[in-house]
Structure formats: structure tokens, C-alpha cells
Amino acid sequence: MNTLQSKEKMKQVGEFYQEVSTANQHYLKYWLDHTLFHWDFWLSLILFSIVPIIFWIKIRKKESSNRLLFTGMVVFIISSWLDFLGVVYGKWYYTGKVIPSIPSYVPWDWIILPVFVMTLIEIKPKSSPFLKGLIFASVSTFIGEPLFLWLGFYVIEDWNIL
Questions:
Q1: How far is CA 130 from CA 30, 68, 72, 121, 151, in A?
Q2: 102 vs 6, 24, 33, 51, 98, CA distance in Å?
Q3: 78-85: which pairs have CB atoms within 8 A and are 24 or more residues apart?
Q4: In 3-state terms, what secondary structure has residue 86?
Q5: Treating both helix axes as pointing N-terminal to C-terminal, what angle do 65-88 and 113-122 enclose, rounded to 10 degrees?
Q6: Are the beta carbons of 99 and 111 closer than 8 angstroms?
Q7: In this predicted model, what pLDDT tens digit does every residue of 18-28 receive, in sequence order?
């Protein structure tokens, strides 16, 4: 089929995608052999995925659920996109991933950060949003990142958090 795109460009881009596909296939094999059902997989699945969801379900006010879930979805989208960019540009990578085909660490982007923000909104709803933002940033930076670095789930490549 004739296209507006040059055949040479389509061929070169196709070669890049083939390299990515091959790398993903190798990583999937590695993940199946060294991560799936190992301690880091279970810790990520249970402690960082299921427990926060149960916690939020227990503490939430049912009448605020829609508003909070919308906020959680916004946090999920923003954190996933920024995390994706960091991984794709080689700034960091993750081990012990629950889902091998997504470059970001799903429990962090999809569960921990949204649940943390929804909990901050739920607790003392009249408190200053700037104070809550400072709490969020401080806990994420000074507790979350060092914990995930210590566990070896998060590996920084060419920069330092200190």
C-alpha cells in the first residue's frame, strides 16, 4: 500500500520497534524465571497493592467515593506518565515488578500514590492543600524513595536523590 511516509523511514522505525519487542521478550522470560512468585513479587502484590486498597476502602467516607476516586485517577495518570518518561529515558528502572510489560512500577503509580493522596484529602478535609502537598512530597521523598531503594525495587541510573 502506498503511504505518505517514506519507505526508508518506515523501515528504520520498524527496526527500532523490533529491537524493543526483542528486549521485551527477553525481559518477560527473565521476569517469569526470577520475579514471578518470588519474595519481591509477593511483597509488591500484597503489601504495596492489596493492603493500601483495603485500607482506603475501610477509611473512606462512602459519600465522597466518587470525588476521591476521580482525584485518585488524576494522580494515577500523572504519576504513570512521569514514571514512564523516567524509565524510557533511562533515569531509573524497577525490579520486582508485578506486571512485566509496563515500564513503571504499578503498585507505586496506580495504588500507593493515589491512595496516599485520597487519604490526605479524606483526613481533615478543611486543612491547607499546601500543607497536605508538603506532607505528600516529604513522605514520598524521604520515606518512600529510600524504602524502595533499600528494597532494591527502584534503581537510579545517572542521577542521585541526595
A1: 43, 18, 18, 12, 30
A2: 30, 10, 17, 21, 9
A3: 79/108, 79/109, 79/113, 79/114, 80/104, 80/109, 80/110, 83/108, 83/109
A4: helix
A5: 150
A6: no
A7: 999 999 999 99
Same domain, 25 and 49: no
**Mean pLDDT within 28-51:** 94
User: Which residue carries 519481591 as its cell?
Assistant: 40
pLDDT in tens, 45-72: 999 999 999 999 999 989 989 999 999 9
**In terms of domains, do 30 and 43 share one?**
no
Question: pTM score, two decimals?
Answer: 0.87
Encoded amino acid at 137, one letter: A
The terminus-to-terminus CA distance of the chain in angstroms comes to: 54
Are the beta carbons of 159 and 91 closer than 8 angstroms? yes
Q: Supply 97's cell numbers.
A: 515488578
The pLDDT of 134-139, averaged and rounded, is 95
Q: What's the domain range around 15? A: 7-36
